[in-house]
Amino acid sequence: MRLAIREALLAFRRAPMLSALSITTIAFSLFAFGLFGLVALNIRNALRQVEDRVEIRAFIADGTGAEATSAALGDIGAFPEAASVKLVTQGEALDRARRELGEFSDVFEEGILPASIEVRLKVGFRDPATVRAVAKRIEVYDFVDDIRFGEEWVEKLHRLRNIATLAGACLGLTFAVVAIIIIGSTIRMAVLARSREIAIMRLVGATDGFIRAPFLIEGFLKGTLGGLFALVLAWVALLVINRFVVQATFFDPWMGAVGVIAGASIGLAGSALSVGRHLKRV
Amino acid sequence: MIRFSHVHKTFARSGVALQDVSFQVNKGEFVFITGPSGAGKSTILKLCFFDERPTQGEVKVCGMSSVTYKTTDVPKLRRRLGIIFQDFRLLEDRNVESNVAFALEVTGTPAAQIPGRVARLLTQVGLGAKATALPSELSGGEQQRVAIARALANDPVVLVADEPTGNLDERATRGIYQLFRDINASGTAVLMATHDLDLVRRSGCRTIEVNRGQLVFDSAADGGPRPSGPIKSLADDA
Ligand SMILES: Nc1ncnc2c1ncn2[C@@H]1O[C@H](COP(=O)(O)OP(=O)(O)O)[C@@H](O)[C@H]1O
Ligand SMILES: [Mg+2]
Asked: Do residues B84 and B161 lie in contact, with contact meaning Cβ atoms separated by under 8 Å?
């Protein structure tokens, strides 16, 4: 094992250009993948923020008793889809309208705005069908005058989310495949560059496992370095975007680690494949 | 130790390379394989170190049979052989020492033993003073000596050499040949392919001649080594 590690490190020293080239190639293909991941992540975050505002508002008829509303509040709060239920009294509605409308606030008179029950839904229950179903169930209360949940808006949001997810999956898969192909071929180059050495190792009686080990270590190291480098590139790209385009979020440490591990595994798998194929052929 | 029994070898692309070849090499023997180029000499040697498998018949080397062997056994066999080629096959980016040490490292020799053994091997082949030279800084004869030191690294029972002097001038050829004789004198068998008939004639060693894939002459056809037999020239055969 120590020898294998030494051979792997020696490979870097003996072919610094080729090693640098393959690390950069790995880095850039992972970077393309990562950049795309960043975009996807930020779109998802943005959509989630918008989605957080999905709510159902049931307007309560004038003169409804406090017991009736508080009973309804309890019932609705027990719906499995409901995240929070809130009563907005006439007074609160008026305050809110005044706040939102600023200088035109005097046009409102007390009592002009109805009280309402506001229901927010849990994550996963914000699709149009569920929202509509919950609204229907709230509508059955006698004292509910009117119910609103921005039907059109919820639907649009939902469609946007589906498109984003699908496009994300397709693009992500494409980038990942491209990254794997590029990484595989750089490692193949490294293997071919040392085919002479491999042939000699076999002649003097090295086992295939022994021959493979340094390449696997080399691939693993290259993949890890490439992954780290890609992460740095993505971070720099994010700084630029934050500065000049929009405020965007970066991967959390856990996702960053997954990226580096992905780089390492691709490096390892690419080497294993290339060396395996080479050893089988000769 | 090496036994060919009715060995046939056919290549998909170029057809029959060996036809019904049978012979045996015993412990400590020195055997030449001669014949015109394309006769099948290299193929015989490749069969010896299991780089090729016979299409028919059986090759048995150091107890390993081409009929029953497992691929994982091949490295074990090769550690008991020393293999030498016309083109030396050294690693150009490592010095003489490292080239020899390489054979010990890849076969799992304890690291502490390696420097001493390498020094002894280099002295044996007469290159004690060139340990840190790169192959490109050596003459052809010296490079072949490095290859021989590497082949000897794992104490082989037989050296298999494919035209080891093919790239060398007259003087270097004699030097390398003498080295092989010395190695043989200490008990290691040698199986050497060559088309240098002068060398073969002068040596008086056992000679196997192949032509167009067939064994046409073996100076020890009766089985035992014969110090100097009649050597049929290639012209007679044509
Ligand atoms: N790997 C191979 N693939 C196809 N044909 C081969 C291969 N090796 C050798 N041959 C053929 O087998 C025959 C014998 O070749 P070889 O053993 O190299 O001869 P020699 O070493 O006596 O010059 C030749 O006709 C050659 O073309
Ligand atoms: Mg040949």
From this structure: yes
Strand partners, B56: B8
Contact A207 B153 (CB under 8 A): no
Q: Nearest CB to B93: which of A3, A14, A206?
A: A14
Report CB contact under 8 Å: B93, A200.
no
Paired with B7 in beta bridges are: B21
Looking at domain B1-80+157-167+181-238, its CATH architecture is 3-Layer(aba) Sandwich (3.40)
Q: Tell me the average pLDDT across A21-29.
A: 83
A204 in contact with chain B, both atoms CB, cutoff 8 A: yes
**Adjacent-strand bridge partners of A146:** A59
Which member of A14, A199, A205 has the closest CB to residue B79?
A: A205
ipTM score of complex = 0.84
The answer to whether B39 and B217 are in contact (CB under 8 A) is no
- CATH number of A55-148: 2.60.40.10, 1.10.287.990, 3.30.70.3040, 3.20.20.70? 3.30.70.3040
Ranges of CATH 3.30.70.3040 domains, chain A: 55-148
What is the C-alpha to C-alpha distance for residues B30 and B194, in angstroms, rounded to an integer? 13
Amino acid A23: pLDDT:
85
pLDDT digits (tens, 9 = 90+) for A147-196: 888 777 778 877 887 887 888 788 878 877 877 777 778 778 878 888 88
Q: Are the CB atoms for B207 and B229 separated by under 8 Å?
A: yes
A-to-B residue pairs, Cβ atoms closer than 8 angstroms: 47
pLDDT 10s digits, B138-183:
999 999 999 999 999 999 999 999 999 999 999 999 999 999 999 9
